[in-house]
Design brief:
heterotrimer, A alpha+beta (556), B mainly alpha (334), C mainly alpha (317), A: 556 residues, Dipeptide-binding Protein, domain 1, Dipeptide-binding Protein, domain 3, 3 domains, six-stranded mixed sheet, B: 334 residues, mainly alpha, MetI-like (chain B), BPD_transp_1_N (chain B), transmembrane (chain B), ABC transporter permease (chain B), MetI-like_sf (chain B)
Amino acid sequence: MRIARPRAARMFVAALAIGLIASGCASERDDDESGGDSEVFVFGAAGVPAALDPSLGSDGETFRVTRQAFETLLDHEPGGTELVPGLAREWSSNEEGTEWTFQLQEGVTFHDGEELTGEVVCQNFDRWYNWSGTYQNTTLSYYWQTVFGGFAENESEDTPEPNYVGCEAPDELTATITVAEPSANYPGGFSLQSFAIHSPKSLEAYAEDDPSGEGEDITFPAYSQEAGALAGTGPFRVTEWNKGNGEVTLEAFDEYWGETKPGVDQLVFRTIPEESARRQALQAGDIHGFDLVAPADVRTLEDEGFQVPVRGVFNILYLGITQDKQPALGDIQVRQAIAHALDRQNIVDTQLPEGGVRATQFIPDTVAGYSENVRTYEHDPELAQQLLAEAGAEDLTLEFCYPTEVTRPYMPAPADIYELLRADLEAVGVTIEPRPLTWNPDYQEATRSGGCDIYLLGWTGDFNEAYNFLGTWFDGYQQEWGFENEEIFDLLTEVRQEPDVAAREALYQEANEAIMEFLPGVPISSSPPSIAFSPDVNPPTVSPLTQENFAEVSFK
Amino acid sequence: MLRLVVRRLLQLIPTLFGLTVLLFIWIHRLPGGPAWALLGERGNEAARRQIEEQLGLDEPLWVQYGRWLRRLLQLDLGNSIKTGQPVWEEFTLRFPATVELGLTALVFAVVIGIPLGYFAARRRGSWLDVTAVSGSLVGICVPVFFLAMILRSIFAVNLGWLPSGGRLTTGIDATDVTGFAVLDGLLTGEFDASWDAVQHLILPGLALASIPLAVVVRITRASVLEVLSEDYVRTAESKGLRKSVVRGRHVLRNALLPVVTTVGLVTGSLLSGAVLTESAFSFGGIGSFIRQAISDRDYPVLMGFILFIALVYVLINLLVDLTYGLIDPRVRVN
Amino acid sequence: MATKTEKIDRLAELTARRETVTGGSLWVEAFRRLRSSKMALIGVAIMALFVVIALIGPWIAPHNPTAQIWRDEVFTNRGEFVGPRGENWLGLDHLGRDQLSRMLVGARQTLLVGVVSTVLGFALGALIGGVSGAALAFGGRAGQRLDTVLMRFIDMMLAMPSLLLAVSIAAVMGQSLTTVMIAVGVVQVPIFARLLRGSMLAQANADYVLAARALGVRRRRVVLGHVLPNSLGPVIVQSTLALATAIIEAAALSYLGLGNPDAAQPEWGVMLAQAERFFDEAPFMAICPALGIIVTALGFTLLGEAMREALDPKLRS
């Protein structure tokens, strides 16, 4: 008897209700609970934004909010991963890939009435380049350091050398950015929310705002914690940040230049950390949508009439292998045995949300450079046992690390996925020593410093560039993988410096094939995090990069 | 009385000082550091070193403690590593929520618990007594988070009577004056905001009240039973004093002493329950914030918050002792 | 002169006899009352059932509790679960394991967590409380100071919310069954310590102790031979109640993601915490372990309460 029954839950609960209190406070709560005003759209977020200045951000919850108010030079197509014009209507580079020229849109006004010009773009980039003090800390300038290297004057040995050279504005609507070396991060990097353009007035007003009063604390600068302090060009402007309630309120910006004018007057992002609380808030009508729906809830929500559009995939979950830690893992046959032992399809079928797929390589198939010709490893326990026997590793014992109390976009329930993989490995005779760790910081530290034999980890892409995935792991020796393979390292070094996009794609394919031949880890799956909306709204186009544009939202 | 208060407050200082030392050593023993917590998947060794250098975490522990203490003496609790905001601000932002929640739970416990315990004792063996006793026993045995889950499922999701979480309905007009949502509404005349806040308090308040309520019922019952058997009550009754006088002046008053102690003790333990209840109802108070701070290794927040909680706890105990004096004149003499 | 010595002898004899007689009969009387208490009977019955299951559970479990035998039939991503059916009386869990087998085998772990953590809390608490009480009552000025230091330490532990203390212990030690037991046990320490100390102080002022001291019986003998045994009553009652608390606290730790994670050892608290996510789709998954925990905790609580009442005749009248 197979049961799918929200009904049963309700019956049980109703029975309990009768048994419990005949609540005196059972006054009627209005059924159409949309915050009193039908033009307010409330969205349930899993976390609080770190700051309202996107240049200081590095996490999805911050960007989800700032993206509605700040725009970048380049953007992604709605619902896809291709680069499309943003504040720049055209862009090009010289042959070496060191000079990037952007033709700006005409008639773009900031929330404070300023005009967008090439000069303004340059001011923004120069501001980031000239950051000093606490701004140079990776927590505050992660993406700048990743894409453009260090600063005009680096203050720490650990900060990378700057790759940014300068910016010029030959005319009103043109900006040219020069970099020292070509990189696979361009032009994709220009679409990062961290490099959204701020109004020149805002830049002036907060130029002196030091992010830290004392030398020893990392403190976000005061302006970044204040609603409306910064003016952007987006369809909404931030008007209130109630930290006590974890609510950020944005209001429609009437003079928005773009075609997609905001469909609601007010947009509120409300923080509801707990998964089931978010769902219940939607069911109770307190919010109109939320992100990171638990896969198990999707069916229930759909049955109740809620909209659960499926996103494209743009992430990868993999089983990491640390070859240094356990000598047996340095044997390719043992790694192949592990790959053959895992029933990855089962995880896709039973654990991952709709739209999830089994991964064959370390990038999802939506990224340019995906190869159809990589070596694949089918689920075959007998072959796995045979390979282990050939390698003389029949009595292999592996320490398997997995994170607890965390949900990642690529991994809805790590402990469950661990359980399934453990059973697979034990079925071929591998002994597993479980090592559960809290996600932050224990798990990060253990896996990154090469402290686990095998572990679960994943990555969500920032923009459509395979280097953003592969380069993160395989551009050189890393403790978390613990191997040296010159072929792979060289390929990725080459691709990083290749200015031609088409040439890069071919190199990526070659790299993917080499990687899957060497099998440094086992890619498991790509799966889209689910997002849900109430029946009475027109939801935004969902994006594989989780970059939804809430200006598209309106009430039916 | 004043001397007693002053003496007790002075005694507090060494305790709290000891607490800060132990606490500082203890939380810096937590494995990993705030660096990884800040960086997440995107971190690397260099960035970690950079952050630790910046935060002064590479220095000897006693130097760090000295610096922390020096700032504390200037009434500066430092900044949260995670949010970059002053600890004091983070605290004042969340403290009212927890106080509101705790008070709601206490009100439930006292308003329902004392009468229930009293009548259960007076009608010993009746169905009321049996229900009260068994109900309170079950109340103690149900895990708080499970109760929260069921309450939310019934009253918020299935019946839709009450909100499923949060402190205020989004979009409602509420002016922030004191941070206490209910009080703010009353002060500014936004009564619907107050009412809304009250509705948001009911479910988490009930969940949090389950254990205190059970304890109060049982202690009241036991205490009333004990007093009822005392000679002076029998004397008063046989003297022909009016029932209401006997009950009020003799029974209730004398029976309340252990109840007050219990309420005091329970108040101190409310915060543990608040960690679970606040998580379950996404009620942004200090309970859930500290829990997050532990996993973020947010040292300044942990130090500041726990120190403050300890202070509140000790003050509540002092208050309980003083309340004795009001109820029982014998204590006053001593 | 002779009369005075005689008097003391007489007194000592009397108190000594009284102690044995009343002391013994107090326990006998309490036990008699306990036997006739309905509450205690139910409590003992529940406890006995629980202990029996914990002992024989692994042998009567119909299936391997950790094998994902039916994992192809459960689709958590679509909210499709398998409820109670002929083969699996309590249904399957979210990974296709037999829920009944997990409940039966889990009882042992649950009991283990409860007992070990309570014993730990009891031992540490009794040590601190006992030393503190003895020092204050018989240790003179130095003893007083020792007592102050120990009690300040206990106050500090009390001032830190118990669950947060447990959470931080779990964070320091990493996740394992041992961690859960230690975290839950440590939280109980201050309660036991204060209780034993208070109880010892009350005993220290009893007539028989004053008499024994007056007779020159050595302090150590008075403390170990008389005061301590007579003070243990409330502490033992407390430990029965603490067992119930320990089981619930362990479940709370699991809910916060810090429970024993090893699937090879199913435990009710972990099961409940895991099932919480699927409550709307598969309530049976949460209800089994929840009822298990509630009923067991109730058993210990009932017995503890009954014992407390039995030892405190005033409550009976």
